[in-house]
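Researcher: Next sequence.
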Amino acid sequence: MSNNTNPQPPAPQTQVVVQKGSMKGCWIAVLILLGVGILCVGGCLLAGALGIGAIGAGIEAVSESIEEAKAKKKEAIKDLEIVDFKWNKEGFGSVMEADFTIKNNGAADVKDIEIECVHYAPSGTKIDSNTRTFYEVIKAGESREFKGVNMGFIHSQTEKSESTITSATIVE
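Model: Next structure:
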């Protein structure tokens, strides 16, 4: 057997040659990047300023809508009255059942009438409350009876309950 020991040629090496005075291209690249950066920051600031103005206008419009809705609810409630209210405990003394007669003294029909019953202990301390909404329409000048309304669970020490109309909507 013969040993063939041919030496491998050396791998080619890459050389980078930087000549003096060739920094001109680098400075141009730096200036371009700097310009793009300034444009981006300026554009973001402008967009932000425009966006803040639009958000402010949107918040103002929403605030006006909320105030308008509150005013309409107050208008709907002011002419409603509970002319009769009776209640008792059912379900082993743990569920409130109530009868309501509601009169609409206003000039507009109302709907979605919400009633809150606040419960008091023998000491006079407020201990609980229940809320129900009647998804019915009560026409202007009319009364409506709601009998046997399940108001939900009630505190076992409730001795007295008061009812209030807390919300309603004018039919448009």
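Model: The mean pLDDT is 82. The two ends are 109 Å apart (CA to CA).
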